[in-house]
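Worked problem 6 (solution included).
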Amino acid sequence: MSTNDPAALLFPALYEGDEDAVVRLLRAGVSAEAVDEDGQSALYLAAVSDRPGAVRLLLACGAQPDRLSLGTDAPLCGAACGGHTEVVRVLLSAGADPDIVEAFGFTALTWALRRGHTAVTESLLGAGADPDRPCPTGESPLVTAAHRGSVGCVRALLTHGAGARAEALAEARRLLVVGVEAELTASLARAHGPGHPSVTRRHPSPEGVIVEVQLLDAEGRPFAGDDLQTGHAEIAALLEAGAARPGR
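Solution. The predicted structure is:
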């Protein structure tokens, strides 16, 4: 894309969060559906960059909320994965399909549950996302949330009538026995091979603690990692209490 092309200036403005520049460029005739030299859409970039103001501007100027960037990536899914709650709500208000499916069968709800983003999960379910739509591996949303260890996501799903409660309870109990650090280490070994040194870090979160395991290369630099939350005991108790109620 030529530097003399005003559309080339839109993407740096989105990266930098310069809404005044975005307004000027859109008023000058730059399309809200513009794509960069790699084919990434302006709306997707704004969504994954957590720029709710820019998302509003692009939508107001004609950007389609469900148009896939690069033919694979949905703005709603990108925002959900990043935990960008306000962007998710803006896209939903503009008519984004809460169950839109992007590449490899992922939905925004799947991403939110895998990352433990409770507020995003609540927004998607409130907009009509299917609480029982399986993730690409066939796992139910409630099991995904139980595996993640997010009490808030589990509560949100239960409020919206999610099924597979016995399976979710079994998963929460399994993680209590295995342990979060061991689960993460084993998963990373399956993906990247055994024998790598690793480091474990614990971070506070609104729902307790996030445990992160990173694999290190020969120079001691992280090259892969994953994390889980530690709400499995509370999730198990929540699901056990539900199972004990009449009619469960």
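Discussion: The domain at 1-96 is CATH 1.25.40.20 (Serine Threonine Protein Phosphatase 5, Tetratricopeptide repeat).
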